[in-house]
Design a protein that fits this description.
3 helices, mainly alpha
Length: about 100
């Protein structure tokens, strides 16, 4: 069974909405340990999945623009996950500058 482009587009939109919620919930509790990098990771995952959505459309220039947006989500999201893991594990010394 082959998935149509329309179905894949819907999946990307749903993934974008879920990732937005994943970014908003930690942002509301940003004073909590490791909440800010988790929020940034959630928002960048939303950008990442939204960047995949145009690839399901029939217009080539729109699809290429979506790929460029996707790269922004990847470039921000992966370091945010690393910072989140370090802060959550109690290794804030690796991410905060020494005075």
């Amino acid at each position: 069974m082959v998935m149509s482009d329309l179905s894949a587009g819907r999946i990307y939109i749903v993934a974008t909405l879920i990732a937005l919620v994943t970014g908003v919930v930690p942002w509301r509790h940003r004073e909590t340990k490791a909440a800010r990098p988790l929020s940034v990771a959630g928002f960048s995952a939303a950008v990442w999945s939204f960047g995949l959505f145009p690839s399901t459309l029939p217009w080539e220039t729109v699809a290429l623009a979506g790929i460029r947006v996707l790269y922004v989500g990847v470039a921000v999201g992966l370091p945010a996950v690393v910072v989140f893991a370090l802060e959550y594990a109690g290794r804030e010394g690796y991410v905060t500058p020494k005075r």
